[in-house]
Structures are given as structure tokens and as C-alpha cells.
Design brief:
Elements (H helix, E strand, L loop, with lengths): L2 H19 L4 H8 L1 E5 L5 E5 L4 E3 L8 E2 L3 H13 L8 E3 L5 E4 L3 E3 L7 E4 L4 E4 L8 E5 L3 E4 L7 E4 L6 E2 L1 E5 L6 E10 L4 E2 L4 E6 L4 E9 L3 E20 L7 E5 L3 E11 L8 E3 L5 E11 L10 E3 L7 E10 L10 E3 L4 E9 L7 E5 L4 E4 L5 E6 L23 E2 L14 E6 L6 E3 L5 E2 L6 E4 L6 E12 L5 E8 L2 E9 L7 E10 L5 E9 L6 E3 L9 E7 L3
Parallel strand pairs: 3-4, 3-5, 5-8, 6-9, 7-10, 8-11, 9-12, 10-14, 11-15, 12-15, 13-16, 15-18, 17-19, 18-19, 19-20, 19-21, 20-22, 21-23, 22-24, 23-25, 24-26, 25-27, 26-28, 31-35
Antiparallel strand pairs: 1-2, 27-30, 28-29, 32-42, 33-41, 34-40, 35-40, 36-39, 36-41, 36-42, 37-38, 37-40
Length: about 550
């Protein structure tokens, strides 16, 4: 056999073995080269290669293209989840479709929870013609990833005209389940009606994530999140109402373990909070910074309202930064209507804040004041942190204030005003003196304290000061009374005239949930002698210190 014949034979054999070993791939090779036509419902016809991801809109690639219409997007999603019509990846790439109208609900994924990814454009898709209050512009189904182009150039889902009426602009399908979203904005500047909020989540499971998501809904409930469980997280989350009447940026229902990492919740309408936690049993944590700007006309509405009147909810925050818009705002940052846990590592009232209203514990019956710089640190009404600063519901009681009245606390083991230190002290404007030989109140304004210590709690009482008698060897008696009965006393016997002697009284009282009055009394031992308790300067006064602890 000559050289040419041998070469011809070798080539023939090589081709034979190649096609024999790749027979199973022949169809794929033909498909990749094949150009075909596909007609969508409604009559749109496109031509392209059937391979890879489902690409919506114009593209420089040779992949199959779907038109920028609601029907085109929905067809691309259907082919991606079903790997149909030549689509070989569960991916929809709609980044080229920068502008279009949403004329009916777009379902990303399917009810079965088939995993897929949806890449959205840096552009705006606007809802058109929605009515009835039951529909959604976009519904995200389980095991899907929705990603916009970037934080500064997100995919914007626009609520359209104010004549639109949705259940919500964005929601979830087949909850509770697993979802991921990033770089998306829900934008409702015209105040289209939303029955359940512009951004409505009703059920999401472990470690679902919404990252760089913003909700701008004017005149409506913005973000409404409920039924979320077990570590679902919102990272860099923003919700704003633009101060429009009826705007409430964020509402949290029954959520068991939801975390916000850096959140900006701003600009409610007058009379509405930035955040409302309705519960019941809503366990929410704000990590990083929670930033809030208030209404621009309202100076009294609390920015965070925990309206759950029970004790099953929990609000925990790392750093709360309140920035009222109106000059002279006295609004509380947090108002807790029940006895749910409130624990804040750092709270700061800044800018236009006025006064010292920081936290109002309605269920527990006391208020918490910020310091002169607007700060409250390491606060917890369940003693999650130490060194809690408490003030009374009546006249202020602080570490440097005079006596006052602490409002009643309900008879409940959950009502634990723990590590609550109260100082009652003399006026410092002149010595207290009496010639009475029967016990009389030293100072019925300043050296008195009324409180309702929780059942089982312990109140440690420490009384101290300096006293004398005007007649040598006479005795001045100082007594601690609780509800009008003496529980302990001290006596100072004058060795000379006048001769000041220190005194101290200690007592431990067990709370029962009822209101009790603690007061300092004194008297002289004999007629003609005057008992004196020294109160001549702000640094030379009698004091009563009350420290409340939980029961052991």
C-alpha cells in the first residue's frame, strides 16, 4: 500500500472512531449550530441559538433572546426552571432589558421551588393596570436568587400610577421557604395603594437574605415583614416614607429570629412611627447601626413602637441613632407598651432632640433618660446588661436627682426592674430640725420613694447622713419607714453641743408587685431638745439609695 493510501485509511479510521465515540453528543452539536424560530403567546417571534441561559432583551451574544415584555420575561423564566426550548441553565439574564412595563404578575421561579437565578437590569420596570388590591407586580418563589446590577444601580420595581391597587408590589410565593435578593428597590413615589404594604414578606425560612434592598413607598405601609424564621437576614436595608401622610416605613409582625444588619428606616408620616413591632412574639435584632429620621412635623410620636402588650416579643439593638427632623423634638426613641425584652447596647439622640426622653417602658411603669450628651448605654429591661439607668414616672429619679415617684409595675415575674439604682437625697438648702418627740417626716418631698417592686425582687436600701441633738446626752432617732411602719432605725447621742455624728440604716425589702412608700423619719428624745439632720450644702446631705435586684 502506497503512502497516500495509508494516510487515507488512517484518516478514515480516525473519523470513524470519533463519530462512534461521540454519537451521544451529535444531537447537542447539531442543536448548538441550529438557528430556529420560536413564537411566544401573543405572537412575538424571535430567532436565535437555543443554548445556555435564557437571555431577555438585546444581546451581543448569539444566545436565544426573549423580548422585553411581561410575556417574554415569564417565558424565559419558565424555560429556565424547566430547562426547555434549548435553555440548558436555570438562569435568566434580563440585564439588557433596562426599561419595560409590568402588565401582569411576574413569577420568578415556580411553586415547586425549582432553583434558579434571575439577573435583573440597572433599570426600571413599571407596573401598569393593576387593580383590586389582590395582585402583585413581582412574586419571588422558593430557592431563587434575584440580583440587580449593583447597590448604586439597582433593579427598580416601580409601583406606577396612584390608580394602581396591589396586595403588594413585591412578595413571596409558597412561603415559608428560602429566598435570596440583592440590589433591588421597590419604588412607589405616587402612592399606589397596597393592601399589605409595598414590600410584603409573609414567611421566610432559615438564612434567607435580602441585601442592599430599599423600599420607598409614599403614603402607605412600606415594608411589612411577618412569619420570618430562624436567621433570615436583611443587610443594608432601607425603607422611607418621604414624610407623606400615611407613610409607615417598617412593620414587624410575628417573626422568630429576624436580623437587620445596618438599617436606615426614615421619614414616616405625622403620627406614625418609623418602626412598629406588632407581634405577637416577634424576635428581632438590629446589628450594626439602626439609623432613623423622624417625621418633619411631629415632635412627640415615638420612633420605635413595640405595641405587643404581652411579654413574648424581643427588640435587641447594637447601636440606635435617632435624628429627629423637627427642632425641639421630645419624642421617645423607643416606646414599649408591654413587657417584652428591650436591650440596647448604645442609643443616641442627636440633632434636633430636646429633653431626655429616650425609652418609655409603659408595661413596666418607668422611663429611661438619656444623659446630657443624648446617650443611653448598656440598657436592658431584663438585665441583659449591667448598670442600667432608670428614672421614675413622676418626678425624675436619677443617680444625681432627688426623690420622686416610680409608676406602678404589674405583678408579674416578667416585670424585672433589675439593677435599677435610685438615689433620693436632701435638698441641700438648710438643716432639717425638729423638737418633736414623735417620729415626723424629714422631707416629704425629697426623702421619700414610692415604687412597685416586682414580685420576688429584692430592694436593698441604704440610708446615711449626719445628725446631732441640741442638748448634751440627748438622743436623735432616725427611722426608715415602709408604708408607715418603722422597719429599722439608728440613734445619735450628742456628746457635746452641737456635735455631729454619722448614722446609717440598712434594710432589704422583698417586692410583691404592689406599690410601697419608703420614707425617712426622725425625732428628739426629750422635750426642749432639737434633733438635727445636716443638710446645709449640696455635698452635705442625707441620702437614701435603693437598688432593685431580681429574685435569686
Amino acid at each position: 500500500m502506497n503512502v497516500i493510501a495509508r494516510r487515507t485509511l488512517l484518516v478514515t479510521l480516525a473519523l470513524f472512531f470519533f463519530f462512534a465515540s461521540n454519537a451521544a453528543n451529535t444531537a447537542d452539536l447539531c442543536l448548538a449550530k441550529n438557528t430556529d424560530r420560536f413564537t411566544f403567546p401573543g405572537g412575538d417571534t424571535v430567532t436565535g441559538a437555543f443554548n445556555g441561559a435564557a437571555i431577555v432583551g438585546n444581546s451581543s451574544s448569539s444566545a436565544f433572546r426573549y423580548p422585553c415584555t411581561t410575556a417574554g420575561v415569564q417565558a424565559a423564566i419558565s424555560d429556565a426552571v424547566n430547562l426547555a426550548n434549548g435553555v440548558t441553565q436555570s438562569v435568566v439574564d434580563a440585564r439588557s432589558c433596562v426599561s419595560m412595563n409590568i402588565t401582569s404578575e411576574i413569577d420568578i421561579g415556580n411553586f415547586r421551588g425549582t432553583p434558579m437565578s434571575f439577573y435583573a437590569p440597572a433599570g426600571t420596570w413599571t407596573a401598569v393596570g393593576f387593580s383590586g388590591g389582590t395582585g402583585f407586580a413581582v412574586k419571588q418563589f422558593p430557592n431563587t436568587k434575584v440580583v440587580g446590577e449593583g447597590f448604586q444601580n439597582p433593579w427598580i420595581i416601580h409601583g406606577g400610577a396612584n390608580t394602581n391597587h396591589f396586595s403588594a408590589i413585591y412578595t413571596l410565593g409558597n412561603p415559608p421557604n428560602y429566598y435570596y435578593m440583592e440590589n433591588v428597590q421597590i419604588y412607589n413615589p405616587n402612592g399606589a395603594a397596597v393592601t399589605n404594604g409595598a414590600f410584603y414578606i409573609d414567611g421566610a425560612a432559615d438564612n434567607s437574605v435580602w441585601k442592599n434592598v430599599g423600599v420607598w413607598s409614599y403614603g402607605t405601609l412600606g415594608a411589612n415583614i411577618t412569619g420570618v424564621c430562624c436567621g433570615a437576614t436583611f443587610v443594608n436595608f432601607t425603607s422611607s416614607g418621604n414624610w407623606a401622610s400615611g407613610s409607615q416605613p417598617l412593620q414587624l409582625g410575628s417573626n422568630i429570629g429576624v436580623t437587620f444588619v445596618n438599617a436606615s428606616i426614615d421619614h414616616p408620616g405625622a403620627g406614625l412611627p418609623n418602626i412598629k413591632i406588632t407581634g405577637p412574639n416577634s424576635i428581632v435584632t438590629f446589628a450594626g447601626t439602626l439609623y432613623m429620621e423622624s417625621s418633619k412635623t411631629d415632635t412627640t410620636t415615638a420612633l420605635i413602637q413595640i405595641t405587643d402588650t404581652g411579654n413574648g416579643s424581643s427588640f435587641t439593638a447594637e447601636s440606635v441613632l435617632s435624628s429627629p427632623v423637627v427642632v425641639g423634638s421630645t419624642a421617645y426613641v423607643i416606646r414599649n407598651f408591654g413587657t417584652s425584652l428591650v436591650a440596647v447596647q448604645s442609643l443616641h439622640r442627636r440633632g434636633n432632640s430636646s429633653g431626655t426622653n429616650a425609652i418609655q417602658e409603659i408595661g413596666y411603669g418607668y422611663n429611661v433618660a438619656n444623659d446630657a450628651l443624648g446617650n443611653v448605654t448598656n440598657y436592658s429591661n431584663h438585665n441583659a446588661f449591667a448598670n442600667t439607668q432608670i428614672i421614675g414616672g413622676g418626678a425624675a429619679i436619677t443617680s444625681s436627682g432627688n426623690g420622686g415617684t416610680m409608676a406602678s409595675c404589674p405583678t408579674s415575674a416578667a416585670c424585672t426592674v433589675q439593677n435599677a439604682t435610685v438615689l433620693a437625697k436632701g435638698s441641700g438648702t438648710g438643716n432639717y430640725m425638729t423638737a418633736s418627740t414623735t417620729l415626723t417626716a424629714v422631707d416629704a418631698t425629697n426623702l421619700i420613694y414610692t415604687a412597685s417592686p416586682p414580685t420576688g425582687s429584692k430592694v436593698l436600701i441604704e440610708v446615711s447622713g449626719n445628725a446631732s441633738a441640741s442638748v448634751a446626752n440627748d438622743i436623735t432617732t432616725i427611722a426608715l419607714e415602709i408604708d408607715g411602719s418603722v422597719v429599722n432605725q439608728a440613734q445619735v447621742q450628742a456628746a457635746g453641743v452641737p456635735f455631729s455624728m454619722p448614722f446609717s440604716i440598712s434594710w432589704v425589702f422583698t417586692g410583691n408587685g404592689s406599690s410601697h412608700t419608703f420614707e425617712l423619719y426622725y425625732c428628739s428624745s426629750s422635750l426642749g431638745s432639737t434633733a438635727t439632720i445636716y443638710n446645709s450644702a449640696s455635698t452635705y446631705v442625707p441620702t437614701m439609695v435603693f437598688q432593685t435586684y431580681a429574685s435569686n
